[in-house]
């Protein structure tokens, strides 16, 4: 029985190979590398999508009259942009009523960054955003 178990384990190892273990949508080349997520649009990402998301969030935060008053508040919005960064639509989907209203007013004053990449614009030019107040 032990030789059969050994053959099974060796077969499983040969089939699995040395592919890095990674969660869904994680991109890495070696098993010990950190995950990078492409096209997630998180402000903390270091890719072009994260840079664009960070620019949009910073523009809104800078236009808020009292940016730190909204710590812990959330607002879900749908934003439509032109490729030059001009905001076309700001549609509130839900969240803290006062924070959402403050964001809507700030959006009229904000100067959003232009989209430098067509692929980023295709993914983020018309998208839903989960905004969070800064501490």
Automatic annotation (TrEMBL):
A GO cellular-component term linked to this record: membrane
Q: Which InterPro entries match?
A: Tol-Pal_TolA (IPR014161)
**Gene3D superfamilies (UniProt xref):** 3.30.1150.10
Query: Which BP terms in the Gene Ontology apply to this protein?
Result: bacteriocin transport
Please name the PROSITE patterns in this protein's record.
Answer: PROKAR_LIPOPROTEIN
Q: Name one GO molecular function term.
A: toxin transmembrane transporter activity
On the tree of life, the source organism's domain of life is Bacteria
The protein's name is TolA family protein
Organism in which the protein naturally occurs: Pantoea piersonii
